[in-house]
Write a structure and sequence with these properties.
Order of helices and strands: HHHHHHEHHEHHEEEEHH
CATH class of the largest domain: Alpha Beta
Number of strands: 6
Strand content: 5-15%
Number of helices: 12
Largest sheet: 6 strands, mixed
Strand order of the largest sheet: 3-2-1-4-5-6
Distance between the termini: 73 Å
CATH architecture of the largest domain: 2-Layer Sandwich
Number of domains: 2
Radius of gyration: 21 Å
């Protein structure tokens, strides 16, 4: 091939991504012009991505996954893009986020910290800054974590929006993150979340006793009604794709919802905290 530039996938994650695109394209016998036409990009853009001169983007990765027919597979370019951008995140989490963006129902149970989908940027920034102080991440990675919170929330704001059920342990409200104004803004965000037509918020009070889950957990319902769950240990995240293994978790989540106070009572509790009453 004339003017074919040899690639070194080991030189950088961006170069590995470009080599991946080229490998997928050539396996199908397509030229850069062929791929450009299918993706509605210019051939110059395709060339720049393949040779690492232009960084990959999320829209490019998602479009390429559709064109190549690899969305949701181990070959997914969106999955690789997330691993490049969010390398500071817990192992397994970027893969989970890719599925989260396609889910039709999301069920969250969280302890201690307001979950990312409900965080304000200020709240997320305080958490990220604390991780920098501990030496766990760099300031640049902290910025990426805050940007990811914004990206995840934006991805779920499109139409049709997924149904989002959030059960928050009372500790999420009681644990102060940031100054008074930042925490008040976060509590106000929870009230706003509860008022949306596709959401349900319940606070699980301390006096409710034993919970069905020992750790925070997320259950996803995908467009084909298959189930996935995601949970984290101190070392990595685990994405369970086998629906039969997730079904008992969904049942336990329904029990948690049934035993918890209503959304109205939960919002009233949040408003009391905002007023400074116990």
């Amino acid at each position: 091939m004339v003017n074919r530039k040899e690639l070194n996938p080991e030189s950088s994650p961006q170069a590995a991504y470009g080599a991946h695109v080229r490998r997928l394209r050539e396996a199908r016998g397509w030229s850069q012009e062929d791929l450009a036409e299918r993706m509605s990009y210019s051939s110059q853009h395709i060339s720049a991505v393949e040779t690492g001169r232009k960084p990959p983007t999320l829209p490019f990765s998602r479009r390429a996954d559709v064109v190549f027919g690899i969305a949701g597979t181990d070959e997914s370019l969106e999955r690789e893009w997330r691993e490049i951008r969010h390398g500071s995140l817990l192992e397994g989490f970027p893969e989970y986020v890719a599925y989260e963006g396609r889910a039709v129902e999301i069920r969250l149970y969280e302890v201690g910290i307001v979950p990312g989908l409900l965080q304000t940027p200020e709240y997320a920034a305080v958490l990220a800054a604390n991780a920098v102080k501990r030496g766990a991440i760099t300031p640049e990675q902290a910025d990426e974590r805050v940007a990811l919170v914004v990206d995840r929330q934006a991805a779920l704001a499109g139409a049709p929006s997924p149904l989002v059920f959030a059960a928050l342990d009372e500790s999420c409200l009681r644990r102060s993150i940031g100054d008074v104004s930042a925490m008040d803004a976060q509590l106000a965000r929870l009230v706003e979340f509860a008022g949306q037509p596709n959401t349900m918020l319940q606070v699980v009070p301390f006096d409710m006793g034993q919970r069905p889950f020992n750790l925070p957990i997320t259950v996803l319902t995908m467009p084909d009604r298959s189930l996935m769950s995601y949970a984290e240990s101190s070392h990595r995240g685990h994405l369970e794709r086998e629906s039969t293994a997730v079904l008992p978790m969904l049942t336990a989540y329904h029990q948690l919802q049934a035993e918890s106070p209503s959304q109205a009572a939960s919002v009233a509790m949040i408003e009391q905290l905002r007023k400074g009453t116990p």
